Amino acid sequence: MNVSELTLLVLRIGFLLLLWMFIFGIVYALRSDLFGQRVRKMKTDAAAPAAAFPASAVPAAVPGPVAAPAAADAFTPPVARASPAGGNSGADGGRATAQNTTRLVITSGPKAGTEFPLGAETITIGRSSDSSLVIRDDYTSTHHARLMLWNDEWMLQDLDSTNGTFLAGSRVTVPTKIPLNATVKIGATSFELRR
Q: Where is the FHA domain (predicted)?
């Protein structure tokens, strides 16, 4: 075997390895889009220092026995702060709660004008047929986002979607409280939570 044959063999093997790397990358991207990311349990930070919270933010002690929180309540999601310019506030500036929010209204996209009544259950949004709100477009992931009640307020959580979830024009990276009438954009569809 001379030098030119050896060089050609090395180039063939290198090209084959590169091709397989691309194939595995595509399969991984498709798998995560179809089945979503693996869910990891978050550890609660029970030993947070009291000095990290201002005295005005700490609620007064409740007299009487207090029940231990349920397992689902063990994790408190971080809440994104509103931008100084008020980018996360809705038209009336109020938070969407279980008492003042009764419907989800799609304002743009293929299902524009459609309204969904809101209850206390979590609403999953995505292309998957097992989602509560199915949005079939090229910019929506299989399991894209979730709307859930947390401490009686509606929260928006992005589920590691490819193209992101936007609340009032800002990308949602952590579970975020939703103001009333604020625009939520997922793929080519926009919706609002209303009274």
A: 123-172
- Alpha-carbon distance of 6 to 30, in angstroms, equals 36
pTM of the entire predicted model: 0.54
Asked if residues 170 and 87 have their Cβ atoms less than 8 Å apart, the reply is yes
The domains located in the chain, with CATH, are 101-192 (2.60.200.20)
Whether 179 and 94 have beta carbons less than 8 Å apart is answered as yes
Helix, strand, coil percentages, rounded to 5, for the chain? 20, 25, 55
φ, ψ (nearest 5 deg) of residue 112: -55, 135
Instruction: For 143-171, write each residue's pLDDT tens digit.
Output: 999 999 999 999 999 999 989 999 999 99
For 70-98, write each residue's pLDDT tens digit: 433 444 444 443 333 334 444 445 888 88
Q: What is the DSSP letter of 139?
A: T
Residue 82 tokens, joined: 């509103």
Q: Is 166:172 a contact under the CB 8 Å cutoff? A: yes
Task: Please give the Cα distance from 38 to 165 (Å, whole number).
Answer: 19
Burial class of residue 82, CB neighbours in 10 A (0-12, 13-18, 19+): middle
